[in-house]
Amino acid sequence: MKIDGARARALGRLAAAQTTSDVISLALEEAPAISFASAVGIYLFEDGRLDVHARGAPDRAVLKYLSLPAGSDPLLAHMQAMRIPVHERSLFSQGEWRAHPLYECVAGPFGFDHYLVAPLIGRGGIIGALTLARGRGTSVFTQSDLTAIAMTTAFLSVAFACHEHCETSILESLSQLTRREQEISTFVAKGLCNIEIARQLGVSVNTVKKHLKIMFAKLGVSRRAELAWLITSGGMA
């Protein structure tokens, strides 16, 4: 999926974060624009407890959510089991959702009709979640939204895992790339797939794949999202 200009700028800001606090602050600031959400939360699982950071939701809503008995959020539980973004229509009909305690006690009273939870993945598994809510009268989350949000959480996951990188180490890592590898990595950071990159450069898809394999080994990454994070952080995209 190609990234539009606004989302590219938002993801670029996320990639530039160098501390966990920066990642959280920027995510809370940028995620609503990426997903057209009324409220956003970053849930982090730390030592058996849930650490919640939110924007757009009243403090009373967050406190009400945290006061619910363990296991009261079926979307969070399903997300943890399946490791994919989940919204209320994934599990419930509209009537079932409106009758569920999560809606009756938290979402509904504070004006939120639609709720989505997406995983943040660390080296040891799921480390938290990006949560999004849309207000009353707004549209439901669509497959297009899920694709954009999955890309956002991929960037966030990498940023959380790599926030200890300093600018010098990133630039040193990128200096290993050849000119052609830098061209390919820039296209990756813009969201182009291998076929689109091959067309841009006038080479075969297999050639692009070979370059990517070499680049992953040079930079010590295993996913395109990690490569995109390094390229953006290093100012190459």
Describe it for me?
The chain has 237 residues and is α+β, with helices and mostly antiparallel strands. The protein has two domains: 5-162, 2-Layer Sandwich (Beta-Lactamase); 167-233, Winged helix-like DNA-binding domain superfamily/Winged helix DNA-binding domain (Arc Repressor Mutant, subunit A, Orthogonal Bundle). The protein contains 13 helices and five strands. The chain has helices at 5-16, 20-35, 59-67, 74-82, 88-91, 94-99, 101-107, 143-162, 167-174, 179-189, 194-201, 205-219, 224-233; strands spanning 39-46, 49-55, 86-87, 112-122, 125-135. The chain has a five-stranded antiparallel β-sheet, sandwiched between helices. A hairpin with a 2-residue loop joins strand 1 (39-46) and strand 2 (49-55). It starts with a helix and ends with a helix. Mean pLDDT is 83; it is low at 164-168.
Which segments are poorly predicted (pLDDT under 50) over 5 or more consecutive residues?
164-168
Regarding quaternary structure, what we see is single chain
Question: Under the CATH scheme, which architecture of the largest domain would be assigned?
Answer: 2-Layer Sandwich
Number of strands: 5
In angstroms, what is the radius of gyration? 19 Å
Total discrete domains: 2
Largest sheet: 5 strands, antiparallel
CATH C-level category of the largest domain: Alpha Beta
Number of helices: 13
**Strands across the major sheet, in which order?**
2-1-5-4-3
Name the CATH homologous superfamily of the largest domain.
Answer: GAF domain
User: Span from first to last CA?
Assistant: 17 Å
**What is the 3D form?**
elongated
* Coarse structural class: alpha+beta
Q: Could you tell me the CATH topology label of the largest domain.
A: Beta-Lactamase
Order of helices and strands: HHEEHHEHHHEEHHHHHH
